[in-house]
Amino acid sequence: MGVSREERAVGHEKVALDRLKARLQAYMAKKGLRSTAQRRLIVDTFFEGAPHMTIEDLLTEVRTRDKGIGYATVYRTLKLLAESGVASERRFGDGLSRYELADEAQSHHDHLICVNCGTIIEFEEPRIEALQDEIARRYGFNITSHKHEMYGTCADCQKKSKRIV
Question: Which residues, other chains included, contact 123 with Cβ-Cβ below 8 Å and sequence gap of 6+?
């Protein structure tokens, strides 16, 4: 019997996580940084956590395991993850910095952001990517990176507002 699609996805995810962890270890070694128990807990919690975590989200999760970890330690560790290329800092217009895993080996994704409840939906659309490439070629432009974020109202908030009326 073959390997299921889910098992392959889990395998690819583990390879990506291992690659990101190795990148972080190499960066820390290069900078002469130690791997403390608190830092490892924060990093592991970030890797296991939900996408688009704020510092406060991560702090709450970490404190369920170690109440002694402070805001500054979580903040510095997230900055370290971003500097090393393991995490990407995102700002979705609500004044908060959110962090997600950054792995260029994974396919690019874009975001739908609900302005009412703050839900963030990741999506991939090859037609959008192809159109962006076509536009860049037309203007002789070399794209080095891009972000595509669409703001609006999610399906749940739309349903709620229809019930209120």
Answer: 109, 110, 111, 112
